Amino acid sequence: MATVPLSPSSGADPAVARDEVLARLADANANAAVLLVELETAREELEARNRQLDEARRVAEESARCKTVFLANMSHELRTPLNAIIGYSELLLEDPAIAAQRDASADLDRIRTAGLYLLTLIGDVLDLSKIEAGGMTLHLEPVPVGPAVEAAVALARPLMAVNRNTFHVALPPDGASVMADPTRLRQCLLNLLSNAAKFTTDGDVWLDVSADVTHARLQVRDTGIGIAPEQMHLLFQSFVQVGDRHRTTGGTGLGLVISQKLARLMGGDVTAVSAANAGSTFTLSIPLAASEPARTARS
Ligand SMILES: Nc1ncnc2c1ncn2[C@@H]1O[C@H](COP(=O)(O)OP(=O)(O)OP(=O)(O)O)[C@@H](O)[C@H]1O
Ligand SMILES: [Mg+2]
Fold first, then answer.
1. How many whole angstroms separate alpha carbon 287 and alpha carbon 91?
2. 18 CA to middle of ligand 2, Å?
């Protein structure tokens, strides 16, 4: 805004000088009034924009909720017949008359494998959608680390054998417990172990458990193909598989993102260190259980 000199120049007629000052003051006032109007208009526009943003957020939240409800219903509708397909293929596989026909049992095995794959995929999509819509509920309770790790290890052993990997497990020496949802903890650990098994061939996979003051650290290390530095940023993204490897390995690119989100909901995290052709280390950290009572966490 222009400043108004309030003292007239020396030697000028005082009346003229006063009129000049008054005229300038009137100008300045008019300018200020225009600025005020502009300011008020800008404020109203900002408020309108904020209201639009609020509305857009509300619509987005509502559609995320509807998507989750839809997926939950659909997944139930899909899972029921899928379980029947898997169940019947397993029954037929056990039939000695069919087992004797090599082609038939190979086909049945393919049906069963495809069914199991679809079942996992449906579960993963539903999990991710629930987490993103803030509808994932976890039941946190003190979980003894040793038995939880053993349960995941038992499920992972057959996966290690597929690519002839040697599996080394170092169980925690003491009876430490973490504050976690037991099913989700096993899911996270199993995801990391299945990745190590999948992306390593004729190598080694280690599972080491340690703890610091606040968290237990479940570390899955492998001697597999690793990840190049320029691709590390692609980890933990939904439906993203790094490099061209998805052509030779099955998977959807959901396991890591779900594991990390679940770990964070439990107060922990999943982090990765890797180098191309030099193996990877994925660390799942989960808060140690102090004397906290069981509680519920929601995304
Ligand atoms: N231990 C590992 N070694 C090398 N690459 C890995 C390892 N773990 C994950 N990756 C890379 O990260 C990508 C994402 O992993 P993620 O577990 O999310 O998906 P996926 O295993 O391909 O499929 P899904 O777990 O959904 O079945 C993988 O496709 C792979 O490229
Ligand atoms: Mg995976």
1. 42
2. 83
